């Protein structure tokens, strides 16, 4: 079972079970606590597997500029229920709902005050340099490439680009 929250498929709620720390704070990491731990619960619990997993992961692929950051989407109508106490409930990571107007964190059942800031990250997690596939000599030639671009009109009034490439 997840360390910080569990899924209630009947109410479509991810319920935070971690009590606030000494500073009245609860921190949930989207990738670790919601995606990974919840996925482990889903895979190990037959009752949960009868339901669609409530979170979608987008990104994480390796691309030419590095590795895309991962964003997570909470499927509708799933929501997060914070711990029932006065505290600051921080969601660390990119998490949103499927519906633009839907709230992510539900109000508490009891008369508690919970603030819910979200710490989001950029879309690129890892940037790799020097991985263009070019040799140093090819890279230097590319950097020194003198390219002139001009346009010429056509009868239809559009312009075609004409490239004048000169290698050093």
Q: How would you describe this protein?
A:
The chain has 168 residues and is of the alpha/beta class. It folds into two domains: 122 residues, no CATH class; 31 residues, no CATH class. It is 16% helix and 38% strand. It contains three helices and 15 strands. The strands form five sheets. Strands 3, 9, 11 and 12 form a four-stranded parallel β-sheet that branches. The relative contact order is 0.15. The C terminus is likely disordered.
Strand-helix topology:
Blueprint: E1 5-8, E2 13-16, E3 25-29, H1 30-44, H2 46-49, E4 55-59, E5 62-63, E6 66-68, E7 70-74, E8 79-81, E9 87-92, E10 95-97, E11 114-115, E12 118-119, E13 124-126, H3 136-143, E14 146-153, E15 159-166
Parallel strand pairs: 2-8, 3-9, 7-10, 9-11, 9-12
Antiparallel strand pairs: 1-2, 4-7, 5-6, 6-13, 14-15
- How many angstroms separate the termini? 63 Å
Which parts are unreliable, with pLDDT below 50 for 5 consecutive residues or more? 148-168
Profile the largest sheet. 4 strands, parallel
Helices and strands, in order, run as: EEEHHEEEEEEEEEEHEE
Mean pLDDT: 80
User: What spatial form do the alpha-carbon principal axes imply?
Assistant: elongated
Category by helix and strand content: alpha/beta
Strand content: 35-45%
Helicity, as a percent range: 10-25%
- Extended strand count: 15
Radius of gyration over all CA atoms, rounded? 25 Å
What is the domain total for the residues? Answer: 2
Tally of DSSP helical segments = 3
């Amino acid at each position: 079972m997840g360390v910080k929250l569990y899924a209630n498929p009947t109410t479509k709620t991810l319920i935070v079970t971690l009590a606030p720390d000494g500073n009245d704070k609860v921190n949930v990491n989207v990738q670790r606590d919601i995606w990974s731990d919840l996925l482990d619960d889903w895979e190990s619990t037959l009752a949960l597997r009868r339901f669609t997993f409530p979170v979608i992961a987008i990104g994480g692929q390796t691309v030419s500029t590095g590795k895309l950051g991962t964003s997570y989407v909470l499927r509708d109508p799933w929501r997060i229920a914070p711990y029932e106490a006065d505290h600051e409930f921080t969601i660390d990571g990119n998490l949103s709902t499927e519906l633009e107007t839907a709230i992510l964190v539900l109000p508490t059942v009891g008369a508690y005050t919970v603030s819910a800031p979200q710490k989001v990250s950029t879309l690129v997690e890892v940037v790799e340099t020097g991985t263009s596939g070019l040799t140093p000599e090819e890279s230097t030639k590319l950097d020194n490439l003198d390219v002139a671009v001009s346009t010429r009109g056509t009868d239809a009034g559009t312009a075609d680009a004409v490239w004048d490439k000169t290698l050093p």
